[in-house]
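Deliverable D5.2: sample structural annotation.
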Amino acid sequence: MDKSLIALSAVAARRLIGSRQVSPVELLDACIAQIEAINPAVNAVTATCFERARIEAKNAEQAVLRGAPLGILHGLPLGVKDLEETGGLLTTYGSPLFRSNVPLHDNVFVARLRTAGAIVAAKTNVPEMGAGANTRNVVWGATGNPFAPYLNAGGSSGGSAVALATDMLPLCTGSDTGGSLRIPAALCGVVGFRPSPGLVPGDRKPLGWSPLTVSGPMGRDVADTRLQLAAVVGRDDSDPLCYDVDPTGFLHSEEIDLSTLRVAYTEDFGVCEVDEALRATFRAKVAALSRHVKRCEPLDIDMGEADRCFDIIRAQNFVASLQEAYERDPASLGVNTRSNYEMGQAMSLADVVWAHAEQTRLFRRFQAKFKDYDLIVSPTSPISPFPWQQPHLAEINGLPLANYYRWVALTYVITLATNPALSLPCGLDHAGMPFGLQLVGSFRGDRRLLDIAQAFEAAWRDDAALQRPRPDLAKLSRPDPSLKSIVTDPPLQR
């Protein structure tokens, strides 16, 4: 295996493919070799289609040699989160109900990536139906953190985050309801970007008018993240929230003078439980950040009843998507998905009306803060990674949490506000694990948020305390055989 190839950023690999210095075939083969060497330790990659991908890579190579027009992702191997439908490739949603599900067509997100030249090589692991921030299910097993495989990789885009962090694939997709792009990015030391609702079309949401769930990109750095984003933005008739947008604005960053930025920071938004040691880590990161900007001061905001609001709106989506399966056989659903459906089933129309009104109030208060600030920052995760054998975090600082997803409140309160948000790698935490800083931009200010994140990334590149951490890949070549202890069947290939 040519390790220099798998270490290339997606941006660099695409440039070298276009200049005939790297072959798409060689790049794919290097990625497959890395998957075979590292995946047994972390279990991030699930179903694969390597033979089909090799054919597509050879076609991509021929297109380069012919001088044909090339897409912006031409020849780049891609991992697709197992909540996204892939034509001809197993899509299980992490559920035994879909253990043999092979869609006939790609969904619109995947189709746009393939149209841009990406080569789908594999699927990446998720919790069942994406429910929870711990990537484990009874179809594929658990995904381990690349820095310590017995710890949680986050979720629900945990497989994608780990595949990126370990150089298995240069591009991977994600999606986000309450933090599913941001939490795994933070825990694994990569970038996860939750775009504004409607920027990336989604054709699989049963409630198309809901801004809660979005698809989006992940990357090893901000430039790779925005490269993938540029391939998928823009209007599609399947999504009533999406709108026309010029994708070229995402390909190139505008220079940001960090010394002009007004930044507000918060450890908890006034409503989120955060581990005391993690708070101390965050304060140290904010102190370092403050040296680069014009103003950096505490955020004062009333987030209302954000927890109850999110509970209701989230449950509404589960009722819409799981009613048929639940009514047929409730036991066919895992404990997380079943509890979400039952939570929604018990709610009234008055609950739903209150929740949407509360979200509107929260949105308006939140947007008012951007009259005074360019950026809001917080921790992405409230705690250092916990063991994946623990289904979810039950308490923080000795205080019991109300349900299995309450520990990701730092990210889901931003979901309610609908602002674009990005988890940026920011060195290590108090336990020596990756720390992610959540950067929140203004309403529909996706491009500017990416520009700001890229400016911080550049400023911190040579700072050991703030730069992106890297896992020990040599150590991962000696996998822990206990990692797949909850796998019920051998991995499948389609």
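Annotation notes: The CA atoms of residues 223 and 252 lie 8 Å apart. Residues 306-328 form the longest helix (23 residues).
The annotation will be released with the project's public dataset once the embargo ends.
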